[in-house]
Amino acid sequence: MKHPLSAITDRLVIAVPYLWLLVFFLIPFFIVFKISLSTTAIAMPPYTPTLGLADGFSGLLSQISELSFDNYLWLTQDALYFNAYVSSAIIAGISTFLALLVGYPIAYGMARAPATIRPTLLMLVILPFWTSFLIRVYAWIGILKPEGLLNQLLLATGIIDQPLVILNTHSAIFIGIVYSYLPFMILPLYSALEKMDYSLIEAAQDLGCPPASAFWKITFPLSLPGVIAGCLLVFIPAVGEFVIPDLLGGSQTLMIGKTLWNEFFANRDWPVSSAVAVILLLLLVVPIMFFQQAQARAQEQGR
Amino acid sequence: MKSLGNIRREFAPWNKPDAKPYIQFKDVTKRFGDFTAVNNLSLSIYEREFFALLGASGCGKSTLLRMLAGFEEPTSGQILLDGQDLRGIPPYRRPVNMMFQSYALFPHMTVEQNIAFGLKQDGMPKAEIDQRVADMLKLVKLGQFAKRKPHQLSGGQRQRVALARAVAKRPKVLLLDEPLGALDKKLREETQFELMDLQQTLGLTFVVVTHDQEEAMTMADRIAILDKGEVMQVATPAEVYEAPGSRFVADFVGNINMFEGKVADRDGTGATIASANGVTIRTANAGDAAAGSEVAFAIRPEKIKVSSKKPESGDNVMEGEIYDIAYLGDMTIFHVQLGNGQVVKASSLNATRATEDPLSWDDKAWISFRNDAGVVLTR
Questions:
Q1: Known Gene3D superfamilies for this protein (chain B) (predicted)?
Q2: How do the domains of chain B map onto residue ranges?
Q3: Is the minimum CB–CB distance between B132 and chain A shorter than 8 Å?
Q4: Which of A169, B48, B142, B358 is the most buried (most CB within 10 A)?
């Protein structure tokens, strides 16, 4: 029979992740959600009502009755928000695809490299994390600006005779996102490709399949769990990305992260920015669920 | 020496001088960096032959197979298939198929799709593919598993799928890399016979790589015994066992007793051998061993008789003492220590339940064998 104490410890162990989720996700989310139902006010904090028991329980009830979904209605009335969501999704989608194009060959090369140098290659992939994200994005300004390193190099080698305008365009955002999130693409791809048995490729060739065709028929389908994981790990944070479009994308870039920042800091409209955040989260839950399902399926297949 | 021939069936193209080899390795060498996996090796395999490459790991047998399949190119030398030089032909254009040791079944495809894979590559019409796949499934008795994925099958079933996939294209040659290595003993024995039947039914040439001598002996028409990238002997299972060409082969295949010594005297085909540790052996069969040359006399345990009384007559009779007894059910192996200290293994079949001649540890015993029971090895 199981010791009653061990049953309690079992539950405690299981409770830890749930507690973590409760304290650091659900509670903050409810605070944001509550703010999104408030109205702006010139106050500290800048919205009403602030729920509290200062006027007793009936006071709290009347405060709750003041909450409304007007802010959400407002989001549908101004095309700005809708455009920002769509534009964010498109920019994140293109960036994710580019990251996949760049990341797949790297991950493939790593997985086929001699086993002795793989740990070194892995370390090189995560090496950029050792410096601040912000500094690395700033560095790209120095590279991409009209008189920056890239243009100097291209002008000096005579490939172009006019500096390219890259900074403050979508291209700069794509470069920034691909660069920043590439490790998140490479790592799951690498782990999927690395555990693949190379004799499968030999078997395909033995059965009459040329190497390029063997890649699309065997390697790629088997790496799909890694492809899905990598794409979602890049897409999800890229949709809400603020720093990269702000620093590299210039003022005309429309992304939801920037819109949110503007509402929060420029307009000091906490309720509307909270509503923007809540909607963003709900929109991202769909791909996150998809990701989890893909993970579960990959685990089952790995057996 | 009288011919031992092939005990299985009347099939011995290698004895016909006009027979053309189907697969030919000509002075093939393969090096990986400093390591020589295959060293100047020549070998001929005939059409419809069941040929086994037998050797310990690292002897180069898998490299030979991989060179035939096209995954490795020889460093030097030539490999011919049906007269055609295979150099430069990529694996996907060679008319050979391989059954991999790991089976290498495509995990994302069903049994059916796995078997159809090679046929689709050839652009076979769909109706024909379906028919062929159905035939193959029937052949390996996996009809009801057509829609399963490999991870839903047992080891034995996976092995059959791998086999069906490899023969589905009707290759000229089927290469099998340790085909039964992953199966348990009982299943392995059953599958050996199934493989032999399959080879007969389809009329294909099989080249099988194995480290298991019993497997090679059971299935193959001929066995090539390899060591350090070189062929030690190519012969039928019976010849390999009864007439090993060298000490290595004699020792590698089955159990054997060796007496190292010199040829003391030759008379006709026979000889008297004086072993280094003081035993004199009479043999009727000394081959071309010259008088005075260093040789080994080798004799299998089952050809030595053990008895508690001195045999009335016999060509070779030696006295000793029972040192160890291993009872294996079907037979008993006696380890008899001779007067000079050498331990000789002798086995006897347990044909009757009660031993007629009960022998026990430390008993005095006599061993005897006929003068045509052993072989003289010069190499």
A1: 2.40.50.100, Nucleic acid-binding proteins, P-loop containing nucleotide triphosphate hydrolases
A2: 13-95+171-248, 255-377
A3: no
A4: B142
pLDDT at B2 over 50: no
ipTM, 2 dp: 0.80
Buried b or exposed e, range B283-315, using 16+ CB within 10 angstroms: bebbeebeeeeebbbbbbbbbbbbbeeeeeebe
The answer to whether residue B71 scores a pLDDT higher than 90 is yes
Cα angle value B61/B67/B69 (rounded, 5°): 105
Using the predicted structure, report yes or no on whether residue A50 has a pLDDT greater than 80.
no
- Interchain CB contact of A210 with B (< 8 Å): yes
pLDDT digits (tens, 9 = 90+) for A181-200: 999 999 999 999 998 888 99
Contacts of A193 in chain B (CB under 8 A): none
If you measure CA to CA, which chain B residue comes closest to A209? B92
Write the CA distances from B272 to A18, B155, B376, integer angstroms.
87, 53, 11
Fold of B13-95+171-248: Rossmann fold (3.40.50)
Contact of B100 with chain A, judged by CB distance below 8 Å, is answered with yes
Element of type H or E holding B281? strand B280-283
Please check the confidence at residue B112 and state whether its pLDDT lies above 90: yes
CATH fold, domain B255-377, is OB fold (Dihydrolipoamide Acetyltransferase, E2P) (2.40.50)
Whole domain around residue A166: which residue ranges?
Answer: 71-301
Give me the number of domains chain A comprises: 1
- Of B70, B100, B169, Cβ closest to residue A203: B100
**Residues 221-240 of chain A whose Cβ lies under 8 A from any Cβ of chain B:** 221-222
**Does residue A299 belong to the interface with chain B, where contact is any CB pair within 8 Å?**
no
B92 and A205 in contact by Cβ < 8 A? yes
Chain A residue with the nearest C-alpha to that of B68: A206
Would you say B247 and B258 are in contact if contact means Cβ atoms under 8 Å apart?
A: yes
- Decide if pLDDT at B30 tops 80: yes
Question: Are A207 and B106 in contact (CB < 8 Å)?
Answer: no
The pLDDT assigned to B67 comes to 93
> What is d(CA B163, CA B115) in angstroms, rounded to the nearest whole number?
9
Does position B8 have pLDDT exceeding 70, yes or no? no
Please check whether residue A148 lies inside any domain of the structure: yes
CA atoms within 13 A on the CB side of B238: 9
